[in-house]
Amino acid sequence: MPKIRRHKLPPQLLNHLLVRIRQRNISADQIVLLARWLDTGPDVPETKWFKKFPGFILCGEGEFARTFLLPGQAPDGQEIE
């Protein structure tokens, strides 16, 4: 199972993630929770996946985080812990 890529993201993907963080008003405290979780080196499936956090949902596919959703929005894929 792949790990989530944190470095050398394609520039368009990185820009998209930053835009979504701003649009969804994801706080610095929430980003710290995300960073701590990423520090654990979680395994993710090669297909679509999502992880729920207080205040947002991280969605990805394989090694890439793809977008952020708000609670109440419907994520697609396998939920991971």
Write the layout of secondary structure elements.
Layout: H1 11-23, H2 28-39, E1 48-53, E2 56-61, E3 64-69, E4 78-79
Parallel strand pairs: 1-4
Antiparallel strand pairs: 1-2, 2-3
Task: Write up this protein.
The protein is of the alpha+beta class and 81 residues long. The protein has one domain (11-79). It contains 2 helices and 4 strands. It has helices at 11-23, 28-39, and strands spanning 48-53, 56-61, 64-69, 78-79. The protein has a 4-stranded mixed sheet with strand order 3-2-1-4. The longest helix is centred in the N-terminal third of the chain and has 13 residues, at 11-23. The chain is globular. It starts with 10 loop residues before the first helix and ends with a strand. The model has no long low-confidence stretch (mean pLDDT 96).
The ordered string of helix (H) and strand (E) elements is HHEEEE
The order of strands across the largest sheet is: 3-2-1-4
Hey, roughly how much beta strand do the residues contain?
Answer: 15-25%
| Unreliable parts | none
Helix content: 25-40%
Tally the helices.
2
General form: globular
Number of domains: 1
**Straight-line N-to-C gap:** 14 Å
Based on CA atoms alone, the radius of gyration comes out at: 12 Å
Can you summarize the main beta sheet? 4 strands, mixed
Mean pLDDT: 96
| Helix/strand/pairing category | alpha+beta
Instruction: Count all strands and give the number.
Output: 4
